[in-house]
Amino acid sequence: MPAEIREPLTVVFTLQGGVIYERKLHDLPDQVLAADIATGLAGATQPHGPIRTISVARQHLSTMRRMARELHESGFRGGFADLTPARVVEHWLGCHYYAERIIRVNLRAFAASGGELHQGIRAHLDGRRINLRTPSQPNQPYSDAEWQRLKAACDAIVRADRRAQAQVLEAVERGKDPVLHGPSADNLAWLVARAGPAPSKQLIAALQLPSCPSRHREALQGQFRDLHRALFPDRVTAFTYNILFAMKSGIVPDGIDKLTLGDLHRTGEHTALLSYVKGRNGTESLNLPRDAIRLLDDWLQRSTMLRDRATAFADQLWVYLQPGIIRSRVASIPRAQHLRHEWPLKAGLLDDQGERFQLHGGRIRATYQHRRDRSTWTGRTTIDPNHTPQVEGDHYLSHHTPAQMDAIEGVIEQAQADLLRKAEPPVVMASEDAARFAEEFPGLVKAAGLDLGAVNALLAGEQDVFVAACASPLKSPHAPAGTPCPARPWVCLLCPLAAFAPRHLPNLLRLKDFFARQATQMTTPQFMAVFGPYAARLNEDVLPRFGTAAITAADTAAALPLHLEETPL
């Protein structure tokens, strides 16, 4: 069973990897509600629910225990069947998004296990959540100074640990059996190396001392504890190596914690492939950097003595010993919340603001990636250190002839003129009076060099093209001066020489239909690149300037039979 309930009321979880975790609930004030919570927790355990690891189980237990205490303090008595929608919603309004999510999971699991819930609560479970999820912020990398201080602190702990181990190993070489030669420091080291790891009480009994006062016994216990820490890595040492490996590899913290010896595949003398599990993506692989491989080799050498005697934990990478007087325990996951807070304090680490250093696995990974992205940048801004950036830019990167410079400036001027031209409003004629036209559009008259005769010809339709009247067909911005304009009909919509009159409305509407057909035959990016600016000018600037009656009349006139080339596919 993934989870079971025992008496006195206790939930026993069987989690991934066969890990057993149990937590009591019989200390809650309302045992009826506590029993229903236990049923929900058991039903929400893998493979039926999201409780798969110890950390997730702790979160669910903590949230549900808090809910039980708060409901009891508010005067509620009974189990889940006695809860009303109003009370549940009131509780949700007082908690955050993740607490509401956990409560919903456990209520659903309770109902799926055959428990009774109010119909209104079931409706809420099927609906949307009350609390919105707060957007998470990406982990900020440590500064260079903080990173260097963290690395220096780890290196100092590792050097001190290896130095202590070397000293004790030298003592082991000098030592003899303390039963025959007395309990000297070297002989005690000899005993721990052969009988350990073992509880201090057992080692003291192995000395076969005729009488051992309590003061002498306490001194021996302290010696044995120090010898154990020197010969076998303790939790602090394993955690320090864990931090250094994260700094050198950039692997996610949970992937590092669960590594085994089988995950490390040697591909050469100085190369290795590491397989690890990333919670969101599953199994991933990484070609380890050279310094990360050296660190792992150093750790494997450091933990060899303990690994040879760790039995069930021999294949775990981060194996360590917690020595004790009555019982010594071997474990394999050194990372813990309290150690993350205590380790920087013992190491004397401070951040750039002089406050306590916040040790966070996600920030270590973010810093590794940030530094890796910057590793190829040399900091130099010039190819030749004897040159200034201006000299290299002028003589090596952008050396142009005068003709090329004139061409570049001409392209820039043309682009700027196009932008100004497209920003000008269209010329829409409301009357056929030449004097009024010259007064309303002086810019067009001046740019095209129109005189009275030319304005009259423009108004009379003698210079009409397909969708507009052209003020000067031989001065087109799209062709050399003196040659007819070769532009397509819709280009007139953005031409500064075009003028639109009511007589052009039928063709403008036919052009609008043409744009609509093209939009159905082309992708949106293609249509916007080819016809987008012209369609926007037609729909937003030109047609709205005519009256509704004129557009309706022109629409009737525009309903002409389509030519073969205009027929949609």
Q: Treating each run of at least 4 consecutive H or I residues as one helix, how many helices?
A: 25
Helix proportion range: 40-55%
Derived from helix and strand composition plus strand pairing, the structural class reads mainly alpha
Major β-sheet profile = 3 strands, antiparallel
How is the largest sheet built, in terms of strand order? 1-2-3
Query: Residue-averaged pLDDT, rounded?
Result: 84
Could you provide a short overview of the structure?
The protein has helices spanning 31-43, 54-73, 85-93, 97-112, 119-126, 144-174, 178-181, 185-195, 200-206, 214-231, 235-249, 253-257, 290-302, 304-307, 337-347, 361-373, 389-397, 402-423, 434-440, 442-448, 452-460, 505-521, 524-530, 532-542, 548-558; strands spanning 3-6, 10-14, 20-24, 264-266, 272-278, 282-287, 320-322, 329-331, 427-428, 469-470, 498-500. The protein is mainly α.
